[in-house]
Design a protein that fits this description.
The complex is a heterodimer of chains A (312) and B (318).
Chain A lengths: L9 H5 L2 H7 L1 H23 L6 E2 L5 H4 L1 E2 L3 H8 L2 H19 L1 H11 L4 H12 L6 H12 L4 H10 L9 H29 L3 H9 L4 H26 L6 H7 L5 H4 L2 H11 L3 H28 L7
Antiparallel strand pairs in A: 1-2
Chain B lengths: L8 E5 L2 E5 L10 H31 L4 H6 L12 H8 L1 H32 L7 H13 L4 H11 L7 H4 L6 H12 L3 H9 L4 H12 L1 H17 L2 H6 L8 H10 L6 H6 L8 H37 L1
Antiparallel strand pairs in B: 1-2
Helix pairs in contact in B: 1-15, 3-15, 4-8, 4-11, 9-10, 11-15, 13-15
The chains are: A mainly alpha (312), B mainly alpha (318).
Chain lengths: 312, 318
């Protein structure tokens, strides 16, 4: 994801595009499908952004619909917008606090393993959930934590009262975070383990001779070695603070946990696609996109200030 | 794990006496270190088990009778084995048809993904391509700013009118910008001499890509093909918002409808069979989960190294 460098080739500058095209016709033809894809599915939607300021009706089209200015933005801030925003932020902060460090810790533990055979077997198992679809993860949760499920029955026996895992708003976020930890922690270790393979083993030997114990070597050699990877991943994660994974949330949401399950992107889905309030949902979505860009740019600046490469 | 010396050892080095603790190579080990190792193996082993235990539990329970599931409080291995749930599932058109739909979507989708990704990445891997920087910047910007869910939905549904067709599932994700950049970097790493000599032999760029570059890119294509394929197999959301005919639904969406929205397992079946009895619910749910998970589980062990390689390439070059 490095920024594109200017390739100034004076020899090419003089020839016209027609000459270039004749030299490599197929190269330019090959460019067409991908270019069309990015224009149609990434940039034409941006052309449709003004519907956030309209009362968009699909039948009339974007140009034929009535212009309403900032109406939807005002409408949103008069609604219970704070609930959507706080639900989003609380879930995001929880997920950064718990799902972000988990793969780092697990990678460090795997790295300390001497038996390569054992390490390989555990890794193979740990990567499995990543390939299980979110529908299946949620289905497994329903079957295990539902009223017929083994965990439900077990906790009922142990606690003496039943716990409504799927409906209780207080448990909802922990279920989401737990599912994410179960699904992605193992897979998330790969990137950190890759960074750890680049550590020069001579550093450990030198530290040993200097009398550094295991914890000291971890703190002074291993952690600094993956520091830039951690920062990079954190910068990437900051850009998606407002993304709570609506494809996941709408599967877990129900009428009982509505007060906590409605995040910004769930709101965009419900109002835009379920209720066909295209303009309203676009306005909220637009705010979300703009804030995300600001967040990723600032996170990147912070990374630079910390002396890291960051994203670009 | 060899239990060796537990006291600190020292050695002479350049006339100095230094303490030696064990390293990754591990010669001498302190008591604390051994305790940590034991804890580490047990702890990570338990975590690894939790990833597969729910799946194993569901596989075993899907072979239990509905009677046992409702009456016996907690168990993993059933007393009485039964394939009723599976008989029921496979006698219903709904599940089998959606299974076929998922295969169709996965195969067609992956083919489209690879075609779009490879052609675009190959063209962009040539530094002399006119407009290359502009296009690359367009790609990078699209990775950070998106118009959002609704404008994308309007483009597919109202503007292109793809609602109700599989194109709505296949085209909007035809290229993952991230994957495309990695494939482009890979193509750039192929020695230019190979392609130049092909050009001298009279190959045009398309022939060079087909005859020289692609045969060298086997593992990369396998990796990204697999990522795309798993993505298609696992996705339900585009199908849910774009498909109108439930005969076209993929397996994941049917699974969601059965379990998440608790829709009856086979509404169409009750119409066909007059002697239809109430379906065994919990076991049906479990059996459907097994049917949807097994294809991935079967291929996973053989493909694991490609998946990991894909992330590594991305981690090092991205």
């Amino acid at each position: 994801m490095t920024a594109v460098k200017k390739t100034s080739a004076p020899a090419h500058k003089k020839t016209s595009f027609a000459v270039e095209f004749k030299k490599h016709p197929w190269l330019y033809i090959m460019l067409i499908p991908g270019l069309l894809y990015f224009i149609i599915f990434k940039y034409i939607p941006m052309v449709f952004l003004p519907i956030a300021f309209e009362n968009y009706v699909p039948f009339s089209g974007m140009l034929g619909s009535q212009w309403v200015g900032l109406k939807w933005f005002e409408y949103f801030f008069k609604s219970s917008w704070w609930r959507y925003l706080s639900n989003t932020l609380v879930l995001s902060v929880m997920s950064i606090a718990f799902t972000f460090p988990a793969p780092i810790i697990l990678a460090l533990l795997l790295n300390e393993m001497r038996s390569l055979h054992y390490k390989k077997i555990t890794q193979t198992l740990l990567y499995v959930p990543h390939f299980i679809s979110i529908v299946i993860v949620v289905s497994i949760t329903y079957v295990i934590f539902g009223t017929d499920g083994i965990i439900y029955k077990l906790t009922t026996q142990l606690l003496g009262h039943s716990v409504d895992y799927l409906g209780d708003p207080k448990i909802f976020r922990w279920m989401i975070v737990g599912q994410n930890i179960w699904k992605e922690t193992g897979w998330g270790t790969i990137i950190f383990l890759a960074a750890l393979t680049n550590v020069d083993t001579q550093l450990y030997e030198a530290a040993m001779i200097d009398g550094a114990n295991r914890a000291q070597r971890l703190w002074h050699i291993t952690l600094p070695a993956i520091r830039s990877t951690i920062v990079l991943m954190l910068v990437l994660r900051m850009g998606s603070v407002l993304d709570t994974g609506y494809e996941h949330l709408i599967l877990m949401a129900n009428s009982l946990n509505r007060t906590v399950s409605q995040t910004l992107d769930v709101f965009v889905y419900q109002s835009g696609i379920q209720n066909a309030q295209y303009s309203y949902a676009s306005a909220v979505g637009l705010m979300k996109s703009v804030v995300s860009v600001v967040l990723v740019v600032s996170a990147n600046k912070i990374a630079h200030a910390l002396g890291e490469d960051g994203l670009y | 794990m060899a239990m060796k010396k537990t006291k600190l050892e020292t050695m002479e080095l350049n006339g100095r006496t230094v303490k030696i603790h064990e390293g990754p190579v591990g010669v001498y080990r302190t008591a604390g270190s051994v305790v940590f190792d034991v804890f580490n193996y047990v702890f990570v082993g338990l975590i690894a088990l939790t990833t597969v235990l729910p799946i194993i539990y569901i596989i075993f329970n899907s072979f239990a009778t509905e009677f046992e599931l409702t009456t016996r409080s907690m168990f993993i291995i059933p007393h009485t084995w039964s394939v009723d749930a599976y008989t029921y599932i496979f006698s219903s058109n709904k599940i089998l048809r959606s299974f076929g739909n998922s295969i169709l979507i996965t195969v067609a989708g992956t083919a489209i993904n690879l075609f779009f990704t490879v052609t675009f990445a190959y063209a962009l891997s040539k530094k002399y391509l006119r407009g290359r920087n502009i296009i690359l910047n367009l790609v990078i910007i699209s990775m950070f700013f998106s118009a959002g869910m609704i404008p994308g939905y309007i483009v597919v549904a109202s503007w292109l009118r793809l609602r109700g067709t599989y194109w709505a599932l296949l085209l909007p994700g035809a290229i993952s910008a991230y994957n495309m950049m990695i494939v482009k970097n890979f193509f750039q790493g192929i020695p230019a001499e190979l392609e130049e000599s092909a050009n001298l032999d009279g190959c045009n760029d398309l022939q060079t890509l087909w005859k020289i570059v692609l045969p060298l890119s086997g593992p990369v294509l396998a990796t990204f093909g697999l990522f795309y394929a798993v993505g298609h197999w696992n996705s339900y959301f585009p199908a849910m918002i774009y498909l109108t005919d439930d005969k076209m639904y993929p397996l994941q969406l049917i699974l969601r409808n059965i379990i998440v929205t608790a829709e009856a397992a086979a509404g169409d079946m009750s119409l066909m069979d007059p002697n239809f009895v109430e379906p065994p619910k919990q076991s049906i749910k479990m059996a459907v989960i097994v049917v949807a998970t097994v294809p991935i589980m079967c291929v996973y062990p053989f493909l694991q190294k490609y998946f990991v390689k894909g992330v590594m390439v991305g981690a090092l070059k991205g």
